[in-house]
Design goal:
- The protein is mainly beta and 198 residues long.
- It is 13% helix and 51% strand.
- The chain contains three helices and twelve strands.
- The strands form two sheets. Strands 1, 4, 5, 6, 7, 8, 9, 10, 11 and 12 form a ten-stranded antiparallel sheet that branches. It has a two-stranded antiparallel sheet with strand order 2-3.
- A hairpin with a 5-residue loop joins strand 4 and strand 5.
- The radius of gyration is 17 Å and the shape is globular.
């Protein structure tokens, strides 16, 4: 049997000041945005959640200051994720495999990672499908050291809702960041809730 794959290439990029950014997402006035392809999304920092996390554990606050130059007196930032390729095999219509880039900004510090072979899932929301995927990888901290990050990201192409939550740092020394607004939970992406990609 011959397997067929669907490959979607997203090509809306600009090279600005050494960082590749999707044009539409970074130029919008919206706090959350999903582009027309459904494979690129953006959300501003959720200062309230970050503040809440950091008040729960002093380690979170110190790690954010050290690793991503976070300023609690003047909080701002954003995340942008662009999937440049998405593949689907006939054998499993509930999972896509993607690759692309994730860009993060906390105050004036910008960091990024490339990812590949991430699995993208989809569930049915009230107003259309909601997609989710996890991004893990290495990034260079504000101190110039390699460190780990791990994020769960969720987005709705129909409503343009975006939520991303995750950690920067590793095990005993990490901080928590959140972008966008919570509108779905990781537990919603159970196997029985997954729907097929068209």
């Amino acid at each position: 049997m011959v397997k067929r794959s669907l490959i979607i290439i997203v090509t809306a990029f600009l090279l600005i000041g050494g960082s590749v950014m999707a044009v539409n997402a970074w130029m919008t006035d919206d706090s959350m945005y999903v582009d027309e392809t459904g494979w690129a999304f953006y959300a501003e920092l959720n200062e309230e959640l970050v503040q809440q996390f950091s008040e729960e554990d002093d380690m979170y606050a110190q790690a954010l200051q050290d690793k991503v130059d976070y300023d609690f007196a003047d909080q701002y930032g954003a995340i942008e994720v662009v999937l440049t390729e998405v593949r689907r095999d006939e054998g499993n219509s509930h999972i896509l495999t993607g690759e692309g880039h994730a860009y993060f900004q906390t105050n004036d510090f910008i960091f990024e990672i490339d990812f590949d072979d991430v699995q993208v899932y989809q569930i049915e929301g009230e107003k259309g499908p909601i997609r989710g995927m996890s991004i893990d990888g290495e990034f260079t901290t504000a101190e110039g050291e390699l460190d780990m990050l791990s994020f769960n990201t969720y987005w709705s192409p129909e409503t343009e809702q975006v939520y991303a939550i995750g950690s920067v740092g590793f095990v005993t020394n990490y901080g928590m960041l959140a972008f966008g607004e919570p509108f779905v939970d990781q537990d919603d992406f159970s196997e029985e809730n997954l729907i097929e990609f068209e």
